[in-house]
Amino acid sequence: MSLSSLLRQSNAEALSLSQQTAQYLRKHASTGISTIHIPFLSYPESTDVWLMYEKLLLSCLRTGDDKAAFNCLEKLIDRFGATNERVMGLRGLYQEAVAKDDAALERVLQEYDEVLAEDTVNTPVAKRRIALLRSLSRTTEAIDALTELLESSPTDIEAWTELSDLYLSQNLFPQAVFCLEEVLLVAPNAWNIHAQLGEVLYISAMNGNESSEGRSLAEAARRFCRSVELCDDYLRGYYGLKLTSDRMLSTNPNDTRSTGQVATVDNGELPVLPTAVVRRLNEQATFKLAEITRTSNSSCNVADINAAKDLLNRSTQRKQR
Amino acid sequence: MASSSSKALIALGTILLAHACYSAYEHSALHLAAGLPLDISIETVLSVVFICVGLVLGAEELKPISWRVWAGRAERESGGGGPFQGLEDRLGFVDIRVKRKDFADWVRDQGSDNKG
Amino acid sequence: MPTERELAISPLVQESVQHNTQVISNIRSLTASLFGVASGILGLESYSGFLFYLLGTFFVSILIWSILAKGKQRDYFQGVWSELWAGDVLNGGMSFVLTWTLFYGLVRA
């Protein structure tokens, strides 16, 4: 299990992981304390141990086992020193988690400010500060801090995605789209980001003015198409494609243009998709969604499958009416 | 299953090959001029076939080189999601207090379920 | 070979390509030495020895194609001919000759 999948694991999994902590700490009580490496006598140090400590720290914080979390943190501080950037970020995380009231959180925030005043390029701490600002619903400040961070490290795609999410929470759709496009410049094959960009475009089309709706929807459909092109049987992509094409068909069902006009126009903008193409995409998405929901096994995300089934049922009901 | 049968095949093949090798050595020491008897030749070829099949069966599985197939497989693996899942989880920006609250709520739900 | 445009539309996973090449070359180098041992025991000389090696390589290729690639060679190899059917024949030839001469000498000492 990688470090990032930690956040998606269920509460039960987090609990069982955090219950292993005490045992793990006992087993590895000696590692990291001796600084002199004796060949053949001591095991070579592996990064796995420290990643495991980080993992346990996060699960313990999540399950509220603060004491065990503190032990993990102490191990990490012993090994890497209190001035290691990553350790500083984790320490901040611990302090945020155990903070009792808003005043305590303010103190943590002040501490972050002090650290950043000395060392402006301390990325983990800067990220923690932004997350804390967001958690305190000071979103505009978070956005400002994040844009500043991105100015110094413009290839940090994690930060770009977070910024897009922040803009989205403020209903600033063009900015959110721009941030995701920036992510795709660095990682052009990230199928989930293509799907996410499609989702943002779809939401913006639903909330925007009438004039730009068609273009946003077409762009969203293109993004969803790319995401299913990059990933076989991608439920999320087909779901979005179905939603988008349904919407496109219901807004202008009697577009009479032929399929011959798909080519790019000279001014660089992509044309609105012809209805025949949209209809075929819609059919394909419906077919694929039905297939995926039929063949899915228990390991897949049940909520996603049920949402897809709902969507299919709704669209068939509409057709029958 | 494949690995155990591959190990058995390789072991069998190796024994046969060693035996064939020793037989051929003894034979050449006794009858210098005569060619190799048929049974030793068959044993040798058979042992080679066994070892080859065992090696191929025991080899690591190939991975699909097409991005589409590979990504689809990564997406379906439980707990997977491929190399870009981290972009959606964003560990560096995690809001730990919300996570804690979620967990506390979940524990309370479990508790009330058990009682009721 | 696919063109640059095709690669941009459906990219390849470099990690998998390297993994597959590694797996194949492991099998090839092991089996090449094995064929050397066998042809040494059989006492093959000159052309018949090399013919034996080529036949053996072909046999291993068929095994890889049917067992590992499950008949779908295009899914696992970029250049099917160079990576699956004829890959590493020359490199394997070196270890083949080495073990061939060694075992020929051992058995017929």
Blueprint (SSEs and pairs):
The complex is a heterotrimer of chains A (321), B (116) and C (109).
Chain A: H1 11-19, H2 21-27, H3 47-63, H4 66-80, H5 85-98, H6 102-118, H7 123-135, H8 139-152, H9 157-169, H10 173-186, H11 191-207, H12 210-230, H13 235-251, H14 275-295, H15 302-320
Helix pairs in contact in A: 1-3, 3-4, 3-5, 4-5, 5-7, 6-7, 7-8, 8-9, 9-10, 10-11, 11-12, 11-13, 12-13, 13-14, 13-15, 14-15
Chain B: H1 2-30, H2 38-58, H3 67-76, H4 86-89, H5 96-115
Helix pairs in contact in B: 1-2
Chain C: H1 4-9, H2 14-42, H3 46-68, H4 73-76, H5 80-85, H6 89-107
What does this 3D model show about the protein?
Chain A has 321 residues and is mostly helical. Helices cover 71% and strands 0% of the residues of chain A. The longest helix of chain A is centred in the last third of the chain and has 21 residues. About 3% of the residues of chain A have low confidence. Chain B is built from 5 helices and no strands. The longest helix of chain B has 29 residues. The two termini of chain B are 46 Å apart. The model of chain B has no long low-confidence stretch (mean pLDDT 82). Chain C has 109 residues and is mostly helical. Chains in contact: A-B, A-C, B-C. At the B-C interface, helix 1, helix 2 and helix 3 of B face helix 2, helix 3 and helix 6 of C. Chain A: One of its GO terms (cellular component) is EMC complex. Chain A: It is a peripheral membrane protein. Chain A: It is found in: Endoplasmic reticulum membrane.
